Structures are given as C-alpha cells and as structure tokens.
Amino acid sequence: MHDLLNSVQSLPPGLIYLVAALVVAAETALIIGLVAPGEATLLLVGFLTYTGTLRLGPALLLMILAAVAGDAVAFRSGRRYGLRLRASRWGARVGAHRWARADAMLARMGGRGVLTARWVAFARTLVPRLAGAAGMPYRRFAPWNLAGVVSWVGGSVLVGHLAGESYDTVSRLLGRATGAVLVLVAALVAVVLAGRWLGRNPDPVRALAARAGRLPPVRWLSARYGLLFFLLSLRLGSAWALLANLAAGVLLLFVVGLAIAWTMRAVVRHSGLALVDGAIASWFALRRTPDAVEATQAAVSVLRGSSLIVVVGVVAVVQAWRHRPWRADLLSVVGTIGAFVPLVVLALVADLTGGGRMVLFSTQNAVVTASLCTLAWLLSRGARWPVAVAAWTTAAVGVIGVGGARLYLGMSTASGTVGAVLLGAAWTAVFMVAWATRDRAVAAGGPPAAG
C-alpha cells in the first residue's frame, strides 16, 4: 500500500484531480457507487492534500463540483429513463430491496431525504435518479443536494487531511473507528426507536404505568389497595396529578439522556479521534491573533447555550399560541410550549457525563447544537421547503461556526466537539422522530395508542 501511495504521489497533480473528480461524479452518474463507494477516493484526496501533493482548497471545490455534476446527471437520467432503468437487467441487479429502501426514504423525508441520502452509500447512488423519476422539481432537489454534498465531501476530505502524517496513522485511525462507527449506528437506530415509541406513547409515564399494572405484584397491590389509591388521587386533584405526571416524564427523559450521553461517550473514547486533538489544537493556536480572538470571544459569548434556550422558549410559545392546540401530555409539552425543557435536561446530562480525566463533552457545544437544531425543527415544521432549507442550513452553519470558534479559542478539543455535536443532534432527533410518528398516527385516523 505504501508503494501504491508513492506511485499516486508521483503522478501530475492535474491528472490526480481529474481522475478523482471523474470517480466522484461517476459514483452517482454511472451507479458505480453500489460497488465502489466514493469515500475511499475522498479520503485519499484529503491525505494527498496533507502531503502537499494537492492543495486543500482547490481539491475541496473540485470534489464538490464533481459530486454535484454527477447528481445532476443522475437526476436528469431518472427524469428521462427512471422506470426503464428499474426494469432493465442492471436495475434488477441493483435489487428490488435497495430500490424500495431508497423509495421509502425519499417518500418519507422529501428534500431532507436527498440530504440524508448523501451519507448512505446505496441511497447516495439511487436517490438522485428516484427524485428525478418521481417528478421532484430540480429547484427543490438542488439546495438539499448541495447541502448534503458539501457536508459529505467536505467531511471526508478533511478527515483524510487531518488524519495525515502517514498511511499507518490513517489505517490505525480507520481501524479504531470501525467499532465506534458500528456503535454509533446502533445508537442512532436506538434513538429512532425511542422516538417512535415516544410518538406512539405521548404520555410515556402513564404508558409504562399501564404496562407495569399488568404485572402480578402490581395487580395484587391494586386489588388490595385500589380504593385507597383512588381516594388519594381525588385528594391530590387533577392539576397536581398533571404536574406530578409531567415531572415523572422529565425524569424519564433525564434517564434516556444519560443513556444516549454514555453511548456517545463510548463512541468518542474508542473512535481514535483523540489522537488528532493535539494536531488540531496546534493548528488553531498558530493562527490566533489578538483581534480575531477578541471577535471570536464576543461571538461565543452571545451564542451561548443559555441564550439559545431562551430563544427556543420564546419561539416555541409564539408558535404554540399561533398554530397548535396544547395538550396535556409530555410530548405535546416538549414539542410546543415546553420545547426548552429537553435542552435544560441535556445541559444537566452533559455536565454529569462529560467530565473525568478527559473532557469528552463540551456542554456548551452540546446545548448549542441541540438548541439550533430545535429552532430549525420548530421553524421548518409545516413550513414550505425554502423556509425549511434556510432554517436547517442556518442551524448547520451555526453549529459548525460555534464549534470552530471554540476550537479556535482552545475552549474544547476536536473529539469533545464531535462528541458534543453528536449528543446534541441525537437528543433533538428523538423528539423530531416522536413528533413525526405522532403526526402520521393522527393523520392515519386517530391519536397514537397508549401503551
């Protein structure tokens, strides 16, 4: 492999740019991504920018343009030949299950599915064609696709660049990261399942209590002391009972938050990201100037988690007042007027789990990420696609900007920033999935079933 890398580095830079761009474009344009995903090419390009064979800026720009061009060709091909391609011999080799999974992602998520597909190998190859065949307007497809391309290409090239020094270092990092990625995928599946369960059980404490009530010991207590429990509930009153139920629900959210945080902690600890913390910190330290530090500190002090939690609270109250009726269950509270509550719980969870000998979470980064994602979710819910794209793009820029600013100031490490962003995004995803599940259940003909 060292001989291969040396051979590649000896080629003219122009030829390397051209071949890499063709591979990245062909991944979707010619459907070769099903057998040869483009991440390896982008990691190699990033590695070559570290060695000086290629320049980072031009490489990033050219790979982004190549990916956008490949997706445009795939979109146009899907518009003209989509049904014919699926029925062809090559379409049969792709497999009906892959077409079906990509169809389901696009139907369920729309433009957001185009963005998400960029991070899933088979979907990245098929979704542009499916979007074209489904008649999605290109003006809707293009901004979501561009956001996915920029994040995926930029992240892959930068990982290859930062992993630097030698192929052995890259290999070691990728080898250590494999297990962490598997844990992360399992955690994301668990997040989706937790969100779906919460969507079907918007009052989770009562749902769990109902299930517990079917257990033999609880049935015995209910039969023996049921009248006493009934009299106590009358004495307590409906208002205090509601408050007690909501308080128990928040406690349940805290337990779920701890589980997510400990999982993300394990992902960060075993990913190998800490190996590049020192190099990244040194890179930022060499570029600090007094004026830039002062401006960055001012920006970070304004975009603090506490400030954003207040903004989320105000936006949630205004939206609840204007658009949605309030309901007396936990999901309605945290999805409308109480959208700030999960952020407060997250701040406490991050404080409790981020410490130790090595700071694995930056509480500010976690809360800022969750707050900006929550704001984007609130503003894009039910809005037209230009508003949704603008909201989520602003949130992504904000998360990257605040994380980069704190790295620049030396206030957090690269691994801590990644862990915090994962924690904040996963925490928001629970409620997004829950709300979407509940909306689908209501649209299907009634409220979600409890229990």
TrEMBL record:
Q: Which InterPro entries match?
A: DedA-like, VTT_dom
Q: Which residues cross the membrane?
A: 15-36, 144-164, 176-198, 240-260, 267-286, 298-318, 330-350, 362-380, 387-409, 415-436
GO CC, one annotated term: plasma membrane
- What are the record keywords, sorted? Cell membrane, Membrane, Transmembrane, Transmembrane helix
Membrane topology term reads: Multi-pass membrane protein
Task: Note the PANTHER family from the entry.
Answer: INNER MEMBRANE PROTEIN DEDA-RELATED, TRANSMEMBRANE PROTEIN
Q: Output the superkingdom of the source species.
A: Bacteria
Q: Where in or outside the cell?
A: Cell membrane
Q: Name all VTT domain ranges.
A: 37-161
Q: What is this protein called?
A: Phospholipid phosphatase
The cross-references to Pfam families, in alphabetical order and at most eight, read: VTT_dom (PF09335)
Q: Which family does it belong to?
A: Belongs to the DedA family.
